[in-house]
Specification:
The complex is a heterodimer of chains A (about 350) and B (about 375). Chain A has one domain. Chain A is about 70% helix and about 0% strand. Chain A contains 15 helices and no strands. Chain B is of the alpha+beta class. Chain B has a single domain, classed as Cytochrome-c3 Hydrogenase, chain B, CATH 1.10.645. In chain B, strands 1-2-3 form a three-stranded antiparallel beta sheet. Classes of the chains: A mainly alpha (about 350), B alpha+beta (about 375). Chains A and B meet through helix 7, helix 11 and helix 15 of A and helix 5, helix 6, helix 8 and helix 15 of B.
Chain lengths: ~350, ~375
Amino acid sequence: MNDHIYDFSQLTRHIDESLRAAMSPTWAVVVELVIIGLVFLTFYALLGLFLVYAERKVCALMQNRIGPNRVGKWGLLQTIADLLKLLTKELVYIERADKFLFNLAPFIVIIASFMAIAAIPFAKGLQAIDLNIGIFYIIAVTSVGVIGILIGGWASNSKYSLIGAMRSGAQVISYELSVGLSLLSVVIFSGSMQLSEIIRSQADGWWIFKGHIPAFIAFLIYLVAATAEINRGPFDLAEAESELTAGFHTEYSGIKFAFFFLAEYINMFIVASIATTMFLGGWLPLHIDHWAAFNRVMDYIPSIVWFFAKTFFIIYVIMWFKWTFPRLRIDQLLTLEWKYLLPLNLINTIVIAFIVMMGWHF
Amino acid sequence: MSEVIKNYIVRENEDYIVNMGPQHPSTHGVLRLELVLSGETVKQVVPHIGYIHRGIEKMCEYDTYKQIVHLTDRMDYLSAHINNEAVCLLVENALEIEVPERVKYIRVVLDELTRIASHQLWWSAYGMDLGALTAFFYGMRDREKILDIFEESFGSRLLHSFNTPGGLMHDVHPNFQKHAMEFVKYFRKKLPEYKQLLTDNVIFRNRTQGIGVMSRETAIAYGVTGPSGRGSGFSCDVRKIAPYGVYDQLEFEQILYEQGDSFARYMVRMKEMEQSLNIIEQAVDKITDGPFTAKVKPIIKLPEGEYYQRVETARGELGVYVVSDGKKFPYRVRFRSPNFSNLFVLNTIARGHLIADLVAISGSLDLVIPDIDR
């Protein structure tokens, strides 16, 4: 019908063809890479600014407050003001800290989140790289981030930082299993690890709807485990303000702190966009069987709007967790994973494999 | 005594020693806790105090009795009104001043409003200690209403020094009774929110139940009073066991819990807020017309001798001990502050728990640091 009106592949093909007409193929590829890099950098910065603002507004909503409202209209420039403050702050180094590792750690964290964003399908035809093992790649690169946290905690030469980093290590390694297993259930359903394939397999219904109850369980487990993996409340033990002052980034100041801060928000966006892609049909519009008129109206909403609407809904839910629940204790956190989520997840995966084998899903 | 010595271990080289404080988000003031850790397990807690010592007891020796009242504000600033009352009661009892009925009931209402405001602040901060950041704003929202009542009558919101030996500084605002009753109605409606937000939360219960168990014997041995002591089943409410003011004419319950864990201490305070509302309701009706102060000489001189008065603050039993040599300044003043005793039980009940539990335990003891150092 109108499958092509919002297809970004036409735009990208047009750019590609005009570049190839103007220069040699090798240079065309180089220019394309530079363009993609610049687009992502801009997107990354804007997304960070927006998410920080959104978090402060959501937090204010939960806490009977107004939130930022002084800088710019509705406080929209608040994050930029904060950023300027962080940029101009002095970078404090601690005596006997390992300077090389101390400086390296924020970059590892931020590069890990940057790499993951490359494989996310934002809209129809708008994906920087469509690997055939897309979801596996994203899981792999996001877990690199924890190395940065561990290095940062170790190199700070501070006791609070070290405790925070060790907590983070234990936490991320444990919850990686649940994240992987719950995503595996969708991979079993769709029979592919390629993100574009996974989205295509949901054209007649999102996995959360047509995967029976097991898919819903997998979705819930993913939400919990992903919140834990990105060190957000109620699983923010690595930071744990009231116990470890600021955990692994206690000793970081200025722009280096901002890197950790930014990476946290981008990671939140990444896990939300994976949940969207895997369970909620990615950029596909919402279709309901036999409601032809409704479905046609839904089709007219651009795919990029669908993607961001779903993603920000998940982000809102994750923020909602943080501002409602008290923090867990480290042993309770590990008990939750190893004694409840992981066995449940294993059984769930087996049930899904059985459903797919018998062809019971819609 | 041997039990106390046993609690302090000899340091070993591989011990991981962390200084929690004097600047730390969850010590609620300049308290320094020296932690001996093994991994994340707390092997020993050594509190170091004195970072906010102002020598209030010594300063009292150079002040008249009316001036001492103002110094007591600065000890436990969250129970400022009750601290004032301790000194006033001591002077009134020593000189046998007959305080008007009106004053007695206004004092009770103010005591209980102060107690509720203090518990609200504690509830807010306790949520924050456990990572529930939203709780803070709900507690503060309701505390604001009490501070507004204070502001209307006394001009200041926290340290109003409204008590003076013999009565009150001046009369309360004509709307005082009305607004106090409005607050009672308002807060009765809001208390279920506290229950939903924190008390019934699974994570919160798991974080507090069975954590930092203090037996009744330990509470008595360390002199832990107030809600912390009553959470261990230690009947120590001064309002009941040695009534002062008009507490013996009002109906209220002493809340006792037997479990002695952090959750029991939490529940004592939650229930105490309800009891305080009951007390206010009864006392407001009994505020009669009359003078706001008895006739007292401008310079008060206590007869030679020793005097002791104890009151129940929001944190436990506050004792004021005064030795007078008949002059206008006291010879020696000594305060028995509840927080001092409550703090030093920490090592006994927190050993073997994790750092996160230590925060939950010290939060449940509801410490105010300036009261420890004085």
